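Quick one, probably user error.
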């Protein structure tokens, strides 16, 4: 017999549409007050197909909420010095509120050096050590990293209680797993979780993930989380997104997350789809951060 699906969808598209309505309203207020709409620039180095798709989605989202946007494309052979010079220009550009440099960068460019060169007041990705530090200290002035912020917004939108819950974060990257674990443990809403961070060296991962009331997976491994690794009634957030070759599709690929959606959904109370879960939320957080930068 088929499992009867009882899960509810954490629908990132629906949540981001609701948030974008508010952002558009506030962008109009900023424009009326200072005569200039919020302005985000995105820098894309090289020609990675996935990165291009993400950056174009970010630019399109700006247009939808009445922001100005600039897409700066550089060739894969751009040197680190050239990129640092561009970052310096963008830092000084008085017409620009915030900007991002899309990752990953070509191998010959050190992403830490680039991130460190970005003015923290324009770092709407929230990657600069000053913004990471502010997040850890719970200071309100900084920018939260876009993807973890988006996950928090999604949990808030659907009224998911988090206080006192056991949150397991799988993955410890600088841009998702590590900041996510900090946000879920802070004394805030959402937050107040007991947090476990699991990673590639964790022993008996399934024994850990099965303890999760809230399971956030950002491991970067297609479909690594199966139903046997999830507790009945858990809230499951899948940050992974992978392009898997699929010749039967017109695009030539299909998208998979880090979670085997169909089997895990049968056990979960709430779950994000891929695509349409965390992805749209990352973009919406970027807009929220840009609006905050524009407000100064
Ligand atoms: N690559 C994957 N996710 C992100 C993100 O949120 N920001 C940037 N700049 N690059 C990314």
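Nope, works fine. Designed sequence:
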């Amino acid at each position: 017999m088929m499992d009867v699906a009882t899960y509810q969808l954490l629908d990132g598209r629906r949540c981001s549409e609701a948030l974008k309505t508010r952002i558009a309203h506030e962008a109009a207020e900023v424009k009326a007050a200072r005569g200039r709409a919020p302005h985000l620039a995105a820098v894309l180095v090289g020609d990675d197909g996935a990165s291009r798709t993400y950056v174009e989605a970010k630019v399109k989202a700006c247009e939808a909420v009445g922001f100005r946007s600039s897409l700066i494309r550089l060739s894969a052979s751009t040197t680190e010095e050239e990129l640092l010079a561009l970052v310096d220009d963008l830092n000084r550009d008085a017409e620009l509120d915030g900007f991002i440099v899309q990752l990953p960068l070509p191998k010959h460019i050190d992403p830490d050096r680039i991130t460190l060169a970005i003015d923290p007041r324009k770092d709407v990705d929230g990657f600069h050590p000053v913004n990471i530090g502010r997040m850890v200290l719970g200071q309100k002035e900084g920018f939260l990293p876009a993807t973890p912020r988006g996950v928090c917004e999604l949990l808030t939108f659907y009224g998911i209680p988090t206080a006192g819950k056991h949150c397991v974060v799988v993955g410890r990257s600088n841009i998702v797993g590590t900041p996510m674990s900090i946000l879920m443990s802070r004394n805030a809403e959402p937050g107040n979780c007991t947090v476990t961070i699991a990673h590639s060296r964790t022993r008996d991962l399934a024994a850990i993930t099965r303890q999760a009331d809230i399971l956030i997976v950002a491991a970067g491994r297609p479909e690594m989380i199966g139903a046997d690794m999830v507790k009945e009634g858990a809230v499951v957030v899948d940050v992974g997104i992978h392009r898997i070759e699929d010749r039967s599709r017109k695009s030539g690929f299909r998208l998979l997350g880090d979670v085997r959606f169909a089997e895990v959904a049968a056990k979960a109370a709430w779950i994000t789809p891929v695509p349409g879960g965390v992805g749209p939320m990352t973009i919406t957080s970027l807009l929220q951060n840009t609006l905050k930068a524009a407000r100064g």
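Residues 130 and 159 are 30 Å apart (CA to CA).
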